[in-house]
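Dig into my protein:

:::
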Amino acid sequence: MSSRDHQSETANGARSSARGMLALGAGAPPVRRVPIALARQFFQICTTAAAESIAGTGLTPLEVAVMAYLNKKLGQPNIDQNGLAARLGVDRNTTSLLVDRLEAKGLLERRVSPEDRRARLLRLTTRGERLQDRISPKASAGQQRILEVLAPPERELLLDLLVRVIEGNRSLARPGAGRRKRGSLQSSPGTT
């Protein structure tokens, strides 16, 4: 890239930034410099990388996340569905569907809690543990691929900052918030 091209690109980026936009590479649409727009695109990138890394397993990224949380080595086996839902950041209905699918595949089992006979504790089956051990390196590599554009100290800083933003706004972390109710034709205020 010539010096003139670089200056022009920098000037375009600066103009875009002044309007709350960040110009990316040539031909790419600008990205809005607001948390929700950035979070949405980051989520799309993460979801795509996760799906690509586990392709061929017959599992979705959320199913793999369930297995990671219940893995004996790194996770917390024997948690209930409500605890799992909170860790995943999804609603209880979605968690129930995930658990049902993994149980039907023979990868997860429910056991009655000794403390509360109404509660069911979740754990991976032996087959589920073996599959988790096999796909875990691929899933981790997919996540690391996302951060390769950053230097190692920047990766840690980004993760630290994301954790801080999430912890500082925990009261806003409500699965399903902002979705339209079924059958509702009107959009909520502030949505487009």
In short: Residues 1-18 have pLDDT under 50 and may be disordered. The beta strands are 21-22, 31-32, 79-80, 108-112, 120-124. Residues 178 and 189 are 10 Å apart (CA to CA). Helices lie at 3-18, 35-53, 61-70, 81-88, 92-104, 126-147, 152-168.
